[in-house]
Structures are given as C-alpha cells and as structure tokens.
Amino acid sequence: MITVSVCVGSSCHIKGAPQVIEKLQQLIVDYDLWSQVELKGVFCMERCTEGVTIAIDGEVFSAVDARAAEELFRTGVLVPLGLGGSGDDELV
Asked: How many angstroms separate the CA atoms of 70 and 92, rounded?
C-alpha cells in the first residue's frame, strides 16, 4: 500500500490543503485505488513557510497545489503501481 499524507495544519489549510486533498481523492476514485492507496491528513510537517506539504511513502514535497498534486500522484503512485505512462500523457 502506498501512503499519501497531506499536511492539514493551519498554514497548509490556508494555503490550499483542502483543494489538494480533493484532487487526490478524485484521482484515487478515478483509478479505483482505494485498496492500494491510503490518503491521510497529518498535522504540521514543519515546512509551514513552503506552502502545502505532502508526503508519498515518506518522500516529502512542498509548495504543492492541485496541479502539482496530480503530477506527484502520477510519479509517486501510478508509476510504482505500474499504471502510469511516461509523464507525457494527460491524467483522466
């Protein structure tokens, strides 16, 4: 199982964490990956000045918006599961 954690602390919440979570939830639904991907909210990842922060299996990414979350989902979730393309294809 791949774990995707999204900071939901006050700074990340204000900077767009709800939109990032919504995008990730939609991608999980679109690809029917609820049995393979755990999406969870976590409090403060201590990168408050860097924008919304997420981690995919422990690898941390900052300044994530919905579009960046989509690309990180491709590289950090779809590719490891054997479902992602080269990165040139559009996501659903």
From this structure: 10
Q: What is the pTM of this model?
A: 0.87
Q: Compute, in degrees rounded to 10, the torsion defined by CA atoms 19, 1, 10, 50.
A: -80
Is residue 37 within 8 A of residue 47, CB to CB? The reply is: no
Structural contact between residues 33 and 80, judged by C-beta atoms closer than 8 angstroms: no
Whether the Cβ atoms of residue 9 and residue 64 lie closer than 8 Å to each other: no
**Domains recognised in the chain with CATH numbers:** 2-78 (3.40.30.10)
- pLDDT band at 84; cut points 50, 70, 90: confident
